[in-house]
Amino acid sequence: MRFIFKTNYEQDIRLAKHGGQVFWYAALLLALLLAPAIVSEYWLAQVTFILIYGIVGLGLMLLSGFTGQFSLGHAAFLGVGAYAQAALTGAGVPFALAIAAAAGIAAIVGVIVGLPALRLKGIYLGIATLAFGFIVEEVFARWESVTGGNAGKHLKDPSLFGITIESGEAFYYLCLVLAVLATLGVLNLLRSPTGRAFVAIRDSEISAQSMGIQLARFKTLSFAISAALAGVGGALYAHKLKFISPDQFGVLQSIDLILMVVIGGLGSVHGAFLGAIFLITMPQVIALAKDHLPDAIALAPGLQGVVYGVVLIAFVLFEPLGLYGRWLKLRTWFQLFPFYRRGMFRRQKAFQKSERLR
Fold first, then answer.
1. CA 306/CA 316 separation, integer angstroms
2. Angle between helices 168-191 and 41-60 (to 10 degrees)
3. How far apart are CA 339 and CA 41, in angstroms?
4. Looking at the predicted structure, is the pLDDT value of residue 7 above 90?
5. How many domains does the chain fold into?
6. Which one of 40, 81, 101, 331 is most buried, counting C-beta atoms within 10 A?
7. What is the predicted pLDDT for the residue at 46?
8. What are the pLDDT digits (tens) for 142-151?
9. Is residue 338 reached through a cis peptide bond, with omega within 30 degrees of 0 on the bond before it?
10. Domain-located, residue 186
11. What phi and psi values does residue 306 have, to the nearest 5 degrees?
12. Could you tell me if residue 3 is inside a domain?
């Protein structure tokens, strides 16, 4: 088991806590850089989608996992970024400026949503964001002069510094660079006073306000940053598919995003990417499992939804910390072996507030 002896404050806020993390993250980055030469074109496309959803997951994780704000309409921000990117690149705006503008437009929409939602929390905030998602989806369908309506909108290949990115490998590297930058940005944000304010609001709004944290300011800022990251992911998503339509950004997409961060592990940056891996690979696993299931089950139209629901319930009941929480327990088990004792990770009994007063 590793023990870290800290002698200064910089060690406590350092991105890599010890040399082992530097080694493994460097190995992961090297594997990602070599992925186009290792995996097939199909699986490279799946890894690209994982990076895109990872960027979106970082934004939703920042909002829900670190600030404690519940959102059921996050796919709307994804759609805003996608349609803004399609409109701007179609008008001849360079790719770099278009994706920055898409993030900015999504952030502005996030502020517009965040301001009315300041007085809401819990399920009421979820209902408000869900209603916002329905409104945005209807706008996408009705604003035909910009979005193309239900007929959808096509996108051309992105062009960066005069070079058209046509191949899947080049677009993969573009998504990898943006995913790394987004991850480093979120990690540094969480180390800053702003990130600590987000976590304080999540833990207790009353305590955070008593320490001088302005709830309205930081909640709105969290919505804006989360929406901006979703806008970047939406822009990349649109270029990857090369065609977008309003039904791609509906409530089912929002539920998939919530499912992603919950199963990945709320309150952890790793959980955003672990959840993205689950979201992309689970349909492949279900498709492979259909070959070994009876026809009555394999041909059922709602099989994927049932599997997702069962997995989500299982994680909420038995592993609320998600995949990343399970990995931490597994790592601790190996570190303590053979001194691990049964029940070490058993959750403490939770009581209602009324029961604590007895």
1. 15
2. 20
3. 45
4. no
5. 1
6. 81
7. 92
8. 888 888 888 8
9. yes
10. yes
11. -65, -45
12. no
CATH of the domain at 76: 1.10.3470
Look-up: residue for tokens 């496309």?
45
Torsion over CA: 290, 75, 178, 23 (sign)? negative
Q: If you search the block for the tokens 């790719």, which residue do you land on? A: 95
Token pair in block for residue 356: 């604590």
Distance CA 213, CA 201 (A): 8
Distances (CA, A) of 307 to 251, 265, 282, 291, 323: 18, 19, 9, 16, 17
Q: Which residues pair with 153 in a beta bridge?
A: 244
* Full residue range of the structural domain in which residue 94 is found: 40-342
- What are the angstrom distances between the C-alpha of 326 and each of 19, 227, 345? 23, 28, 10
Q: Which residue matches tokens 């193309």?
A: 148
In a domain, 2, yes or no: no
Give, rounded to a whole angstrom, the gap between the first and last alpha carbons of the chain: 41
Q: Burial, 36: exposed, middle or buried (Cβ in 10 Å; 0-12, 13-18, 19+)?
A: middle
DSSP code of residue 339: S
DSSP 8-state code for residue 344: T
How far is it, in rounded angstroms, from Cα 346 to Cα 50? 32
Compute CA distances 336 → 332, 341, 342, whole Å: 6, 9, 12
pLDDT in tens, 268-326: 899 999 999 998 988 888 888 887 778 777 777 777 778 888 888 888 888 888 888 88
Of the candidates 190, 254, 252, 260, the one whose C-alpha atom is nearest the C-alpha of residue 225 is 190
**Which residue in 180, 177, 172 sits closest to 239, CA to CA?**
172
Taking the model in full, what pTM does it have? 0.87
Q: Is 280 among the domain residues? A: yes
